[in-house]
Amino acid sequence: QVQLVESGGGLVQAGGSLRLSCAASGRTLSAYGMGWFRQAPGKERDIVAAISRSGANTYYEPSVKDRFTISRDSAKNTVYLQLNSLKPEDTATYYCAASRTLYTIDVPTAGNQYPYWGQGTQVTVSS
Fold it and tell me: Measured between alpha carbons, how far is 34 from 109 in angstroms, rounded to an integer?
């Protein structure tokens, strides 16, 4: 079973940047499609971005496309989410999640496809 730990959240002004990291232990992340989700107070947890096992395919929620970038580093067993041009509406707790996908090109986008979750990291964007 894989364990996931997020880091890199914090308080940033609108227009600023952060890089979130999701470090894995227990299993190699190369066996998993990976996703980043976020949940704001009083709202549901929604997908932000996802990446296939191979890293060749990605998905972005439309509101973050061209601002956020998901990537993975097999050597470090870590997945990243680069957040640029942050907006106050990006304020949320960000979670990474892992999914055992059948094919290396699969990009899971539904929360129920992810059985493994980290504890979350808070991102707060001030206006």
Answer: 9
- Give a three-class secondary structure readout of the chain: CCEEEEECCEEEECCCCEEEEEEEECCCHHHCEEEEEEECCCCCCEEEEEECCCCCCEEECCCCCCCEEEEEECCCCEEEEEECCCCHHHCEEEEEEEECCCCCCCCCCCHHHCCEECCCEEEEEEC
Angle at 98 between CA 110 and CA 121, to 5 degrees: 90
pLDDT at 77: 95
Cβ atoms 121, 86 nearer than 8 A: no
Average pLDDT, 10 consecutive residues per value, the chain (127 residues):
96 98 92 96 96 96 97 96 98 97 90 96 97
- Rounded distance, CA 48 to CA 64, Å? 7
Closest to 93 measured CA to CA, from 71, 72, 118: 118
Say if residues 121 and 87 touch (Cβ distance below 8 Å): no
Single-letter amino acid code for the residue at 42: G
